[in-house]
Amino acid sequence: MRFDILTLFPEMFAGPLTESIIKRALQAGVIDIALHDIRDFATDKHRTADDAPYGGGAGMVMKAEPLAAAIRSVVSSRLSVAGDAPEPALEDGPRTTDHGRRTLVVMMSPAGERFTQRVAEELVGYNRLVLICGRYEGVDERVREALIDREISIGDYVLTGGELAAMVVLDAVARLVPGVIDAESHAEESHGDGLLEYPHYTRPAVWEERAVPPVLLSGHHGEVAAWRRRERLRRTLARRPDLLVAADLSPADREYLRSLGWVPETRDIPAPKSATE
Ligand code: SAH
């Protein structure tokens, strides 16, 4: 999968992309990341990428022309790689989505839809993600209208720029690309099926008088799995009861949750049939 990042500060990406899992995925060619400096698409001699807002007010606004030129250059390079000179990372078959599109242009924005694991799962369906990092007060609205497919916020707070947000999206999507981490690691992960993950332990069996739950040392796979499932349910109820509304719950899960005092939300219970109609 290919990630193209459009930014005024490409150097910011050096650290996160040169360590651990993302580094290995890059080396293995499973993912491919290209950084594009939006300033390289400015045409004046000062390489101006921002200007004062029409209507007045604080701060600067990212200009339409350099950003639009950068987006178009990246998106059209997709067309050329589909032709005679294929780039390896884009050659691994059409991973088409509902729209049959292989490239998605995403703008990082605090006014965008909230980024969740579900959104990450949708984004990994594209062959190429173009992530646009805003700065200052944001970008000229007309670029958004003309060229942006989707706007994503990583949370309800305001960052100084979209770079950290793009790294968050890249990281969460990249680890879903087949081959980046063990397929097994995804199976029972937090948020995968709407529940949080169970707690983990490693050696020693007793640390500062705290023992690992005995069931994990029993070697009994069935009991370990049942314990982990209950821990997931217990943790989700304690920390994020809101997630239970949409979680994938079996009748046994529901019974266990009720034994812990869970009261399902009313909309979770089938409405009683009216006796008069
Ligand atoms: N004036 C804007 C904030 C601009 S912050 C407003 O009030 O909405 C500058 C840039 O940082 C934005 O263009 C966006 O790219 C990025 N950014 C800030 N907070 C973000 C968030 N929560 N999620 C994603 N991107 C964010």
Structure write-up:
By secondary structure, the chain is α/β, with parallel strands linked by helices. It is about 30% helix and about 15% strand. It is built from nine helices and nine strands. The chain has helices at about 15, 20-30, 65-80, 115-125, 140-145, 165-175, 185, 220-240, 250-260; strands at about 1-5, 30-35, 50, 60, 105-115, 130, 150-155, 205, 210. The protein has a five-stranded parallel beta sheet with strand order 2-1-6-5-7, sandwiched between helices. It has a two-stranded antiparallel sheet with strand order 3-4. Strands 8-9 form a two-stranded antiparallel sheet. Strand 5 (about 105-115), helix 4 and strand 6 (about 130) form a beta-alpha-beta unit. Helix 3 runs parallel beside helix 5. The structure holds S-adenosyl-L-homocysteine (SAH). S-adenosyl-L-homocysteine binds next to strand 5.
Which short descriptors sum up this protein?
5-stranded parallel β-sheet, two-stranded antiparallel ribbon, 9 helices, alpha/beta, 15% strand, 277 residues, binds S-adenosyl-L-homocysteine
Summary, kept brief:
The chain has 9 helices and 9 strands.
Topology, element by element:
Elements: E1 2-7, H1 14-17, H2 20-28, E2 32-37, E3 50-51, E4 61-62, H3 64-81, E5 103-114, H4 117-123, E6 128-132, H5 141-147, E7 150-153, H6 163-174, H7 183-187, E8 206-207, E9 210-211, H8 221-239, H9 251-259
Parallel strand pairs: 1-2, 1-6, 5-6, 5-7
Antiparallel strand pairs: 3-4, 8-9
Helix pairs in contact: 3-5
Bound molecules: S-adenosyl-L-homocysteine (SAH).
